[in-house]
Amino acid sequence: QVQMAESGGGLVQAGGSLRLSCATSGVTFNSTVMAWFRQVPGHEREFVAANRWNNYNAEYSDSVKGRFTISRDNDKRTVDLQMNDLKPDDTAIYYCATRRPYFGISRNPSVYSFGGRGTQVTVSS
Fold this sequence. Notes:
125 residues; mainly beta; six-stranded mixed beta sheet; four-stranded antiparallel beta sheet; 10 strands
């Protein structure tokens, strides 16, 4: 059973930074894509970033490219999201997710497994 535990969210002023972390269990971590999504109540879950198991291939949504960085530690089975220059539009609940082993990066949340409750990020103007 896939389980995720997201942490690191909070309240920050615009221009500030946060680092989210996701601890995983039940994930074939060394051979799977890990991703971050976010969701605002009443809206669809939105792709933020993802990287492959080798940590060298990452994708970002246009809205966060250049500000956010995804990284993973395959030994610790964790995936982090460093968020810099935060904007009020980044306010959302952030979730980490995993795909089935050896599948590539997708921006479609329906092909991922979400096993955590997410972490709230609030950016004030």
